[in-house]
Amino acid sequence: MHQATRRLGVKPETLYAYVSRGVLRSQRAADGRSSTFDADEVEALARRGRPRRSTRTGALDIAIATSLTSIERDRLRFRSHDAIDLAQHHTFEEVAHLLWTGELTRAAAPWPAVSAPRRRLPASANVFDRLTMALVSAAASDPARRSVDIVTTGRRAIAIELDALPLAGEPRVPQLRLPGREPVRHTIAGRLWSRLAPGRPPSGAIRALNAALVVLADHELAASTLAVRVAASTRADPYAALVAGIATVSGSHHGSASFFTRRTIDRAAATSSDAALTEVHARTGAYPGFGHSVYERSDPRAAVVLDLVRAAWPSSKRLAQVDALVAAAQRRAGLWPNIDLALAALGHAAGMNAHAGDAIFAIARTAGWLAHAAEEYTEPVLRFRPRADYVEP
């Protein structure tokens, strides 16, 4: 291990993060405590530079010029604005408007509530089923569905997604309180709370949920965002592009990642943090909720959301369990929490159901998907046409 860290010029925890992301493979050394690494893999990685994505067999790197989001080292920015600062001082609506128009202004009025035609769904329908059906119905009932007025379409689509979720608690919408500002009424965060949480929020809870929506609004070229851009390149309408995003984000390794992290938290509460991490690693080869493929050290989104969750629930035994899990992951693998852990912690502290993170992720990312669709509409039609390398069966 020491030779690998010296050759790569990184700390041991970064080396373990590379292993968690699939960038390097490791084997347990004969002493049972340390790890060994393939010299050729380490050398190839050193020559290429620090990775931002997995280099596992079959992985593809695709670069697309964009003016929306940048990720440099451990900093996330939306149109040159620091996303962590935005999460602390702006509403999700204001950040969505920034992504759609390039303008950062304070929201003058709440977004209107919109309902799509109701479709009966079986009790087994999950969050993504509900959002997909709502968007399909919204498209069918919108005579302007092919309009590229992303602001109007975006507000309508997000309001319809909210309406597709059943109430979990009181219909009254709690206010959002941001530092140095008057309380903001009828925000998306407040409206979403009543769909996900069973009771009234403690002070600071809506701010934590709003921050989660903000930092999740976009994340460069994630798989679902690429799917949206491919759909938009065919000139599919914005609703259809969103459905492509929902279909992709529903995968267990994308938008549902917080659900599996929540299961690890629940298992830790029933046994112990070390036992839960041992079990999940033996089953999956990874630690859900820890490490990230595009950050060198830690996910800045997780830090801001976790800080606000702890401030909202300062004496929570549930959060004490989360903190114990974080400490165990650091001790075992040197891994820092990612946004999936922060989402799971928010849901755990608030008593939301285990799939609440799915809804938060998808509704937040709708803002970024539409911004990418609008950007793609200005590019040449059908520009995505990769070629296949035929392999004789």
Structure, explained:
With 393 residues, this protein is mainly alpha-helical. It folds into three domains: 2-48, no CATH class; 69-255 and 355-376, Orthogonal Bundle (Citrate Synthase, domain 1), CATH 1.10.580.10; 257-350, Cytochrome p450-Terp, domain 2, CATH 1.10.230. It contains 17 helices and five strands. The strands form two sheets. It has a three-stranded antiparallel beta sheet with strand order 3-4-5. Helix 7 (150-163) packs antiparallel against helix 17, helix 9 runs antiparallel to helix 16 (339-350) and helix 9 (205-215) packs parallel to helix 17. It is globular and about 65 Å long.
List the main descriptive attributes of the protein structure presented here.
single chain, 393 residues, mainly alpha, Citrate Synthase, domain 1, Cytochrome p450-Terp, domain 2, 3 domains, three-stranded antiparallel sheet, two-stranded antiparallel ribbon, 5 strands, 52% helix, globular
